[in-house]
Amino acid sequence: MRKELAYVYIIDLAGELTSSVQDALLSASEQASNDGARVLVLNFSHLVYKNSSGLKSIVALHSRCKAARQHLFAVGLNPGYQKIFEVAQLNQGITVYASEAEALQAAHELLAAPGVPLRTP
Fold first, then answer.
1. Sheet holding 8-17, edge to edge
2. Which of 92, 116, 94 is CA-nearest to residue 43?
3. I need a labelling partner for 53 at 20 to 30 A (CA). Which of 2, 89, 90, 113 fits?
4. When comparing pLDDT for 34 and 115, which is higher?
């Protein structure tokens, strides 16, 4: 996990996305939340394998972020993962960007907008 901007953290997914990573993924999310994260960016660029259990981990993370009023972004999705996001309708709750730079720019603009709370009460 990397802190890129104030309130913005990037979680790099590498190797395999299976049920075995769910605890680490949710733990990273919790740590970022405790540090005041308002936006989490999942970077899929280095992911080589995923299965349905791994996707359930993403759904669990999305639910956690939604409950904490955090935004969840995704970057680095290859065409196959983009299709999975569409079919599973993950792209309706997780905003997908072509690059990390685009996601960070969007996060910056979102957090700079008037009325956007920086922390949950």
1. 2-5, 8-17, 39-50, 71-75, 95-97
2. 94
3. 2
4. 34
